[in-house]
Amino acid sequence: MGRNGRALAHIPPGKTIITETDIMSRKRMREEETSNTTTEVQAATNHTPPQGEFTMNSVKTMAPFSDDPEAIAIREKVDYSIRITFKQAKAGNAPRPIRVFADGIYDLFHQGHARQLLQAKNLFSNVYLIVGVNGDSQTHMKKGRTVMTEDERFEAVRHCRYVDEIIKDSPWELDDEFLNKHKIDFVAHDDIPYVTEDVNDVYKFIKDRGMFAATERTEGVSTSDIVARIVRDYDVYVRRNLARGYSAKELNVSFLNEKKFRLQNKMDELKDKGKRVIENIGEKRIDMIQKWEEKSRDFIDTFLLLFGREGRLSHIWNEGKGRLMQALSPPSSPGRGNDSSDGDAEAEETSPPPPKACRLEYSAGSSRSRSSACALSDDYSDDDLPTGGI
């Protein structure tokens, strides 16, 4: 039953009817349920956490869309006739949950978006955060093409832990009809004027009504910055996706560029392998040097054992050289006369050869001719000269 005793006829059978105490934030309800579960478990186990220890509450469901029964039931329980001033909200004296609205395109949802929603969630105590996501049609017309489709952007935002409700295809400019329909108390956005073709500041209408709550932009990150990085490093991302199995047609790459990118990928693979080899060598160089020193000592010892002055090969060479010299220099012929002693043999070797025998040839000549020929043919030494003359 509602505040005025009227039944909620729009809730289908089987759905849980939210009571008056459920007007609080959907996220806060989940946190209380988790806290109660933790308390019950501690009571069952008779365990009390020590001082300083705390339990972590986690959100286990995604935020509903504004046309889901859960969001509709919460919205209809809100008494929007009770208007909450900014002063009341800051003082924490609001009689009901404060419904804060934040909107944006949220393309390539990043930490800047999440930080904006975190600030909106913590503007006041007991905030029910409603996030409006602009659709594709108006976004493409007013700002340009997006990377993600509207359905992808809706799903990305509804999984942010700070969000309690999502409004799909939120209007570019807010009006009273939209604020009253969703029972919005405050609109959160950064204070920089948002200029369009029609107005100088889209949020001027909200600011004039005292319903604007400023948040701070996260410098250094935006969707435009991320797109600029992709465009700047186009070749890198195309090569990465080609390596992951995307076809050139899917990436809108020509045949020649595809071959060029694949060749560059192969060159990068070779470079990486070379770096890994060098790194492995660098890590193992100390072990390699130690092992090399040990092997070098063994090699030197073996070399000296074979080729040193007292080595085996030296002995073999000396013995072989002696045998070779004996083979090339045979002993001299024995002497004539006597073989009695070595001294006599040496004397015979140094003595002159024996005289040649006189060869007489008898012919019809005179005896003088024969004696002259014999005298000319005899070979006498100084000691053996004949004493009698011719």
UniProtKB/TrEMBL annotation:
Q: What class of enzyme is it?
A: transferase
Q: Where is the composition biased (Acidic residues)?
A: 379-390
What's in the keyword line of the UniProt record?
A: Lipid biosynthesis, Lipid metabolism, Nucleotidyltransferase, Phospholipid biosynthesis, Phospholipid metabolism, Transferase
Q: In which pathway does it act?
A: Phospholipid metabolism; phosphatidylcholine biosynthesis; phosphatidylcholine from phosphocholine: step 1/2; Lipid metabolism
Q: Name one GO molecular function term.
A: choline-phosphate cytidylyltransferase activity
Stored InterPro entries: CCT (IPR041723), Cyt_trans-like (IPR004821), Pcy1-like (IPR045049), Rossmann-like_a/b/a_fold (IPR014729)
E.C. code: 2.7.7.15
The protein here is known as choline-phosphate cytidylyltransferase
The organism named in the record is: Thrips palmi
Which taxonomic lineage is given here? Eukaryota, Metazoa, Ecdysozoa, Arthropoda, Hexapoda
